[in-house]
Amino acid sequence: MKVKVFSLVLVIAMLLGAVACTAGTTATPAESKTITFGVLAPLTGTNAEYGKGFQVATQMAADEINAKGGVKGMQIKLIVMDSKGDPKESSDLARQLVENKEVMAIIGDFTSSASMADVPIIDEAKITLLSPTASNPSYASMSDYAFSIMGRQSDEGPFFSTYILGKYMQAKKVGIIYINSDWGLSSFKAVTDQMKVDGIELVAEANYVAGETDFTSVITKVKAANPDTVLILDQGAVAQVVNQIRTSGWTDVKLATLGPGASQQLIDLTKGNSEGLITSTPFFFNDSDAPAMAFKKAFAEKAGFEPTVHPVVAYDALYLLVAAINKIDGTITREEIAKQLATTEYTGLAGPIKFQPAGDVSRKYVIGQVKDGKWFLAAGYDYSTSK
Fold first, then answer.
1. Burial class (CB in 10 A: 0-12, 13-18, 19+), 290
2. Which of 20, 51, 156, 237 could form a disulfide with 41 if both were Cys (CB 3.0 to 4.6 A apart)?
3. CA–CA distance from 332 to each of 117, 133, 327, 338, 340 (Å)?
4. Pick from 83, 62, 12: nearest CA to 302
5. Nearest Cα to 219, choosing from 259, 239, 248?
6. Which SS3 state, helix, strand or coil, does residue 315 take?
7. From the CB of residue 61, how many other CB atoms can be counted at a distance below 10 Å?
8. Where are the domains of the chain?
9. pLDDT tens digit string along 242-295?
10. pLDDT at residue 8 above 90?
11. What is the CATH number of domain 32-151+288-353?
């Protein structure tokens, strides 16, 4: 009998010891006074500018929030992982993050393709995936845990056709060069569907795969159709395409791009070749916007380059998550964060955020153009409503 009692006591003691050990190594947010978020971003590869922007901007937001006491008394900790802009790599890293029980939500990824690859994993784990930039209109509707705040290509594509190609550039015959990805295909469809409505002729189109560096064949194909305007749909390879168009001797065609935003690195990489280049963006830095200009200065000091809209929405994304968590009464869980996030409204540096039923937002757009080696605001938000 004593042996049995001793055995029972020993088992209980071992269980209590295991619990104590677990509490010491994997503390709950309340015990550790920290709350952890994952960040998926392409820190290397063709989209490294934007991934680095995610890393710097989210850490800036975390530092600011922590300096003010954190969220519900907890300090924010970020785990930043390099997806390289590759959907498979991103999904592998997403799985690592969801298996870490301390990670309460994930910000990322940068591309629609990578974000869409992550959805089955985060949906099964019931954890928020808040992409600052995924704009494929199919992405957010894939799961109740998938969100995006950049805007939808189904909004930006038609704007680009009607108000940039049509009204601003007076384009008649357009050639399109685009990346063959979920985002690229979605953007191509959104623009060209509206071009048909607007009476703008698509005279040629050519695509390429991620990682391509020699665009001679696609440029030759599009040039043969003699368009008056070439539209480039991509982020990371735009500078290379622009340079190869101009150095091929094709200097008279007008150039436009949807994807990279008003990137200073693009200008630095293209130098005079990007003069006159036109783009759309949901956000443009304005000297009269003091908070945005303060962010721009601080970001440039930390990152070593000027921000585009992409780090701005990454910065807003962390503040948005915090706003959602502050609404929670009681225990903070992954599921509760997603539930509160869906109904959270927040005004960030890039403007107001209010989720549509699918989990994404609608944005308005402005027109930026390169002039004398710098981006300037060619037309504001009212351009689409003015006569």
1. exposed
2. 51
3. 26, 26, 10, 11, 11
4. 62
5. 248
6. helix
7. 24
8. 32-151+288-353, 154-281+366-384
9. 999 999 999 999 999 999 999 999 999 999 999 999 999 999 999 999 999 999
10. no
11. 3.40.50.2300
The answer to whether 267 and 243 are in contact (CB under 8 A) is: no
Residues 81/93, Cβ–Cβ less than 8 Å: yes
- Tell me how far apart the alpha carbons of residues 14 and 332 are, in angstroms, rounded to a whole number: 29
What pLDDT does 1 receive? 34
Contact between residue 130 and residue 148 where contact means Cβ atoms under 8 Å apart = yes
Same fold, 32-151+288-353 and 154-281+366-384: yes
CATH superfamily of 154-281+366-384: Response regulator (3.40.50.2300)
| Cβ pair 157, 191 in contact under 8 A | yes
Contacts of 75 (CB under 8 A, 6+ apart): 33, 34, 35, 66
Structure-token match 């008394």, residue found: 73
Measured N-to-C along each axis, helices 309-325 and 334-341 cross at an angle, to the nearest 10 degrees, of 110
* DSSP for 247-305, written as a single string: HTT--SSEEEEESS-S-HHHHHHHGGGGTT-EEEES----TT-HHHHHHHHHHHHHHSS
- What is the distance between the terminal CA atoms of the chain, rounded to a whole angstrom? 94
Residues 6 or more apart whose CB falls under 8 angstroms from that of 106 comprise: 37, 38, 39, 40, 94, 97, 98, 118, 122, 127, 128, 129, 130
Alpha helices in the chain (DSSP H): 2-25, 29-32, 48-67, 87-99, 112-125, 153-159, 182-198, 216-223, 238-247, 264-270, 290-303, 309-325, 334-341
Residue 232 and residue 241 in contact, taking contact as beta carbons nearer than 8 Å: yes
> Which residue bears the tokens 């594509």?
157
pLDDT tens digits along 63-113: 999 999 999 999 999 999 999 999 999 999 999 999 999 999 999 999 999
Distance CA 48, CA 45 (A): 5
Radius of gyration over every alpha carbon of the chain, rounded to an integer in angstroms: 24
Q: In this structure, are residues 312 and 299 in contact, taking their beta carbons and an 8 Å threshold?
A: no
What is each CA distance from 80 to 20, 61, 87, 114, 238, in whole angstroms? 29, 14, 16, 15, 26
Residue 169, both tokens = 């550039």
SS3 for 157-170, per residue? HHHHHHHHHHHHCC
